[in-house]
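Standup, Tuesday
Yesterday: got the pipeline producing structure tokens again.
Today: sanity-check two examples.
Blockers: none.

Example 1:
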Amino acid sequence: MDTCKKDMNIVIVGHVDHGKSTVIGRLLADTGSLPQGKLEQIKEMCRRNSKPFEYAFLLDALKDERAQGITIDIARCFFRTEKREYIILDAPGHIEFLKNMITGASRAEAALLVIDAHEGVRENSRRHGYILSMLGIKQVSVLVNKLDIVGYSEDVFNSVVKEYSEFLAAAGVTPTSFIPVSAAMGDNIAVRSENMPWYSGITVLEQLDAFNEELPPDDLPFRMPVQDVYKFTSSGDERRIIAGTVESGTLRVGDGIMFYPSGKKTTVASIEEFNRPRRTAVTSGYSTGITMTEQIYVRRGDLAVKTDEKPPVTASRIEVSLFWLGKDALSEGKRYYLKTGSAKVPMRLEKTEYVLNASSLEKAAKPKVEKNEVAKCTLTLERPISFDISSDLSGTGRFVIVDGYEISGGGIITGVPGDEKIRQNVLRRNFRWEKGGVSLTERMERFGQKPFVIMITGSKNSDRKTVARELEKSLFANGRSVYYLGIGNVLYGVDADIKTGRSEDRDERDEHIRRLAETANILTDAGLIVILTASEIDEDDVYLMQTVLGEKIFTIRVGNAYDKEPAFDLSVDENDEKAAETIIRSAESMRTAEF
């Protein structure tokens, strides 16, 4: 017998009473996978209680489940074919136990979704299909059950296939197969049915063996959430061991690692395992400990990453797709806790972009997310955390939300708001910045000035450029190293790949402003005072420039006020011959620069 077969997690979901547990019970019975005497034990129990025997009782181990005829918790059983071994998860279908269903589905590699041929597609059938899509389960086989009740009708089967295929396509799921079955009678479960000559496809057992195994994520970027840090003092043992479970990737002794969000770096000195020989490498799925060549402060919730691989995202605002299962609605202003990996951080709902009706996939604007609803939201965290976008690395892109002492929701991280993306680029830029042989401090001493940016704006008709040029000449005459950079100089050069001219596209505008600010950042790193001009700069533009440049920006409006203008550091009359002197005095008084 092959003892090296791989395991596969399979979850079975569907509306209550559609026959999920019966499918699994029948598979176990028909393939001889039941423990010795289990079938007889359940049949005797049914006889004593004057209840008809059901194969579902082989899975439903809890007393109240047998009494109510529904699955409440996740029933786990083990099943073997000639190809592989399975861990079968029978998830509850009742809407009140949706949390349990999600728990069971979160680690599955494939799913069987059961629909009653007689009742047809129900609300939970749609909800479960959407959640499987949201959890990233790509292999889904739909079992149209209880064909015996409808006389093994091909038309009924085709009707269910048509309706549910259209829904799943809208949810982004392409079913691996549709299989007509009768779990109670054993049709097309382990043996092909003689009652449905019109069906020539595979059985459920054959479909299980046809599912593709997920490749171990050893080749993905290394991720290990830090669970704890241990230090042993007995017998002179000075090791500090950082413990955690490897989520993905491979780590070897000698690899450089960085801990996010702090950004602290060190090198792996050893890989430790309790009461076992030391390893030189560790891969995904292993719970392990590592020691460092350079001792740095690391804490629970940090994310360990290899320095030569793609870094995670670090942000305090995240865009998510979530499902809410709490008895109270997810509401703005209320404090919750978000948990991802080993990190736990206070959070609040910033805004709800839309709430999705998981049955119809219709979107609606709502200020709250009620129980059993799915929504796209922006969450604000009280401190930054490190994670991956779910589409890049699913293991470190999932989260749950705790309300009080209850896990009340969860979902996947789909992105970060625009300003957070800019901040990520700035962090990455600073980390990768190639420093020259002359430091900025040395340049400041040579030039006798503190480099910073003066942003001059105004209405389209304002003479901001004249003011900027006069300011440049005045500063230069006073011995300052200064450079005037109008946005037009960037539009037709650095920005040549972006549509120029006035655009209503906010993303386009943001990219123009970002590149202008990044160009100014290079000039300030060279020690220069930089004067920028652009028309009708708004609050979002200023915020974006401050994100790129830090605190090195002084904003000025020339001429009359215009719509959507931010609060400026200074406003000047464009006809004022002494505007440049006014700007210099104001900058001095605000200690923005050392003139």
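Example 2:
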Amino acid sequence: MTNPAAERAERTPTEIDRIADGWVDTLVELSPEWGVWIGRAGHESEYGDYSPEGAERLIAAGSAVAARLRAAVPADAVDDVTRTDLLRELDLAAEKHESGFPLRDLNVIASPAQDLREIFDLMPTASERDWQHVAARLANLPDAMAGYIETLRLGIERGMVPAVRQVREVLQQARHHAAQDGFFFGLPGGAAVAGVPVVDSLRRDLEAGAAVAAAAYGTLAEFLERDLAPRAVQEDGVGRDLYALASRGFLGAEIDLDETYEWGREELARMIAEQERVAGAIRPGATLEEAIAALKADPARKLHGTDALQRWMQDLSDRAVEDLGRTHFDIPAEVRALECRIAPTQTGGIYYTGPSDDFARPGRMWWSVPAGVTEFDTWMETTTVYHEGVPGHHLQIGMATYNKAELNSWRRIAGTSGHAEGWALYAERLMEELGYLDDPADRLGMLDGQRLRAARVVLDIGVHLGKRHPDGGTWDGDRALAFLRANTGSDDATVRFEVNRYLGWPGQAPSYKVGQRIWEDLRAESRRRGGAAYSDKAFHRRALDIGGVGLDTLRAALLD
């Protein structure tokens, strides 16, 4: 099938399109990592400026763009969406900067401490020239790290510091990257694996770059241990004001945090009740724990080794693309390509990276398998493949990238966690509706994930807003660990990593379930308004054609 968006005439760029496209150019210039993420040539060996001065330049550039947008007159509805959502993002960035948010930007999963290394996962590696860029960026990592440390040091001076739990965990990550058996010293060998001939000069550059990059992480570890840890705060919660800013950023919507906390508790109870009903379908009369134990003991539902895991992921993903592309979605050829890979790290978690703007680099589903984990339960992860692939992240992000006829470059790369992750959870439930989770075991795996996401709403808001815990005390890290252990079947190492993630990345974890809630509400309201003429396929096409936007913007675009 073809995508109707591609059949429309190419849209003539408007003034607002040009402003938005110019902002993407500015992002790539000031933060070259953006160029890697979207697959744009230029600045391949560079990093952005992670120092306080670099942050000021980025905010000043954003403020200038915001002023131009406010003066511009929208030419059509597409412009209305672009103007509204880009202003939302730029204004929020300025507000967060003013609050000192970047000065405490250190956590276990999504801060510059990880970004400086993770950019190498996306850099092209198919040619000698590509590896020259890798070597040059390795050599430039120490300066970027120095700027980041300068920013954290300014945070110490101004009393804007992260929680000591995050400092200690990132300290361990930094030490690992600095070690001889860490990521960097193994990177030069990747050229041979990729089949690229490496001349002596390039090999020396790669080895020298790996050494200085690893040493930079050693410098970070020393700073964290000696300077930041003694001054970091003990409390994991960031408080209502900072949390509200973070939540708005991840959702692109303003919500009632207290109402959402109570809704999360109700949703969690509903998920538990649904799981218990499905457990009885797996083994009559079984408790949830007994049903899970039976599934974990079933050799037919086990995968052994990461090679088997990768093959299983790819096969299930390919079948979903083929089936849904014939029946429920219009999926163009470019978007049908989805690579499933084992990540080069061992931090835990599964994630998706979008295609480059020209689809030369396809969308990719990554599984970061923790050290020592060699067995995988297919019943727990079937829904994860749909979440990360089709109809989840890959379909949503791939279609936004593909829709060049209507969307400017910023609209094709923009979005929020609530929009993307909410859609992915919505996609899981959609696959249940379409019959792809009729196996009670696979459905229980989906419910396990949905229960986890509901629990995260309660835990995240509970800790960061200092809510009263059901046991009568106040939410804290220890209570969060016990709570998550009771609401997921994951191993203890995964539970600890997940809790540390929530505590250091406020507002992100709830954006999944809250985003799903908003997506489901939008579909229900669209169905109510459309009456007999409504179709899910048309709703999905219209929603995906909008591209990645904040959820308040999405609501206005779909319903107003």
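Quick observation on example 2: The radius of gyration is 23 Å. Residues 3 and 193 are 37 Å apart (CA to CA).
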